[in-house]
Amino acid sequence: MDSSNSKNVKIERLSIAQELIEDQQLQEKQPSIRPGSFKDYPGQEDVKKNLEVYVGASRKRERPLDHVILHGAPGLGKTTLANIIANELCVPFIATSGPAIDKPGDLAGILTGIEPGTLVFIDEIHRLSIKVEEVLYSAMEDFAIDIIIGQGASARSVRMDVAPFTLVGATTRLSLLSRPLLGRFGIQERLEFYDANALKQILFRSAKILGFQLSDEASHEIATRSRGTPRLANRLLRRVADFADMEGLVEIDRKVADLALTRQGIDSAGLDRVDRRILQIMQEQYEGGPVGIDTLAVTLNEDRDTLEDVYEPYLVYRGYIARTPRGRVLTNSAIAYLRSTN
Ligand code: ADP
Prior knowledge:
Elements lengths: L2 H27 L15 H17 L6 E4 L6 H12 L3 E5 L6 H8 L7 E5 L6 H13 L1 E6 L6 E6 L4 E6 L7 H5 L3 E4 L5 H15 L2 E2 L1 H8 L6 H17 L4 E2 L1 H10 L9 H14 L6 H8 L3 H14 L3 E4 L2 E4 L1 H10 L1
Parallel strand pairs: 1-6, 1-7, 2-3, 3-6, 8-9
Antiparallel strand pairs: 4-5, 10-11
Bound molecules: adenosine-5'-diphosphate.
The site of adenosine-5'-diphosphate has 19 residues, from α3 and α9.
């Protein structure tokens, strides 16, 4: 691959990362766009049905909900769902993340101050260090933590009680969770990519909150080009709205949606530049595979985690890439897609 191509891919990846940060900042300014109850959370029907039962049972028994692990690609609504569970249980919600809990003492600091029943949300839970994880085991099981105080011969273990709580962990990579940790989650739910109907409902709700009028056709156009991901759907809605504003339109229609999405580099199959580049490289340099994820990451000059967390799951979901024991391979659909783009 020539260096200008690899540069393009890198820039594209950075811009997506930047947009995710922008999104989170916007989210903080516009909290109402994040649904606060199951009824305002379209999609993930099976997950919602199960959680509604577990939440109902926990309320009836007046006992904390069992610990929950939510897994699935970024932007599918894991944090939102954790928030909704806390709302439905009427309990306080505390959010942190695996990388933010550096030492066992940090975890002790969070857990020792909570009210009974609190929902503690740990995003990216697969990134907890083993030392922190070990302290978490007894916290989850016995609502107590053992902390070592002092060093060397004078070191001693001190047991501290914590109020009964529910841990909700979120991860994009269930396979990176250790067995002892995973085994301590009584409730394990996987979030799937959204179909166009669910995304349309999300888009109509967001458009209403943000004060835009959206035609049915435009919502369909955005929904089918959002990689099955609400975070992206909401982001694209804002970009499309920018175009509509500049054109002086009162309502976002299909034409302006198509124009804005095409300008964002998203084609009618819903793939962006990086997706296309991945498929092209697999075809041109690896004759369709099999190719290992590490080799692919190096060729794309792409971070392996981003490739595995963000791009690959959607390409697998769309049936363009298959995972085999020998590596990733292009499917016939991908070959047909690449032919149609040439
Ligand atoms: P994750 O934690 O899985 O990365 P988030 O919960 O942060 O995803 O959701 C990303 C964005 O998408 C948020 O703006 C959230 O409001 C929105 N969102 C996610 N799922 C839904 C849903 N089912 N309905 C409405 N909005 C959703």
